[in-house]
């Protein structure tokens, strides 16, 4: 079995490859080729969580190889103030034919890359083709990954960053300017960042809404990725009510998305407010944007299939290049 650390994941899984793999994962999901129960989550004090997420892709044509595995991950929001990663854990994948453990892959890096790549797939399907101004709310790992991911699918020329800490917002804007060669700026007010932006990515750890309808311009596409539990929200009810909503998976969204559950429980939307899954768009079972002024929303919960497909890709690359640390799990002789 290979042990694959975060730097190796980042080297072997560039954003271009991740977007392609997420497109394949969503297509498999939309084609009913994925077995994936709802994730099991242990809630812990301090808004912390420990989650277990298994998945299997059954059709070899849907991804590089038939894949199955499980992600185990902790979510510790306080780590952002400690200089540590918020998401920590492992993705375990197994050799498809034998069931022998193939790799244990550092999950934080996988999560950061695949989440942004999934948003890129959604953005490519839903944002206006000429979208060039991106607003990012948040300054952490996901914020940085999303800037890179948006540039992979749209002609991004302007990046605006908002964060609770102005110094971190400026540092991220400076990074975007240097990395992508775009105009980038930090903003103290959310509206300054979002108004006029064709793409808005919310990547905060907030449990209360930070994005309100008055801060969203007609025609914008929103990737909401920070609130992945029922008690957490980034979007005001009016934002959700006024948008055409698309999700990674209906079952997950209706059980786990605080952004959707709050207006649903308030009677402001019904379950049919979800227009489709990203996989359904890819296989032609749902229709995406219908007008330039329509506001579209991708509510991202993160799916185990995304992690498993990503980890299988990393394992294959690592095995081919001799990367990672090989360990033996052979049972002891008696």
Beta strand count: 16
Q: Tell me the name of the CATH homologous superfamily of the largest domain.
A: NAD(P)-binding Rossmann-like Domain
Low-confidence runs: none
Please give the count of helices: 12
Helix content: 25-40%
Beta percentage is 15-25%
For the sheet with most strands, the description reads: 8 strands, mixed
Outline, from the CA principal axes?
globular
Query: Which class of the largest domain in CATH terms?
Result: Alpha Beta
- Helix and strand composition category: alpha/beta
CATH level-two architecture of the largest domain:
3-Layer(aba) Sandwich
Order of helices and strands: EHHEEEEHEEHEHEHEHEEHEHHEHEHE
| CATH topology term of the largest domain | Rossmann fold
Please state the CA-atom Rg, rounded to the nearest Å: 19 Å
Describe this structure as you would to a colleague.
The two termini are 22 Å apart. The protein folds into 2 domains: 2-111 and 304-326, ornithine cyclodeaminase, domain 1 (2-Layer Sandwich), CATH 3.30.1780; 126-299, Rossmann fold (3-Layer(aba) Sandwich). 37% of the residues lie in helices and 24% in strands. The chain is an alpha/beta fold. The mean pLDDT is 93.
Quick structural gist:
With about 325 residues, the protein is of the alpha/beta class. The chain is about 35% helix and about 25% strand.
Q: Key features?
A:
ornithine cyclodeaminase, domain 1; 2 domains; eight-stranded mixed beta sheet; 334 residues; eight-stranded parallel beta sheet; Rossmann fold; 37% helix; 12 helices
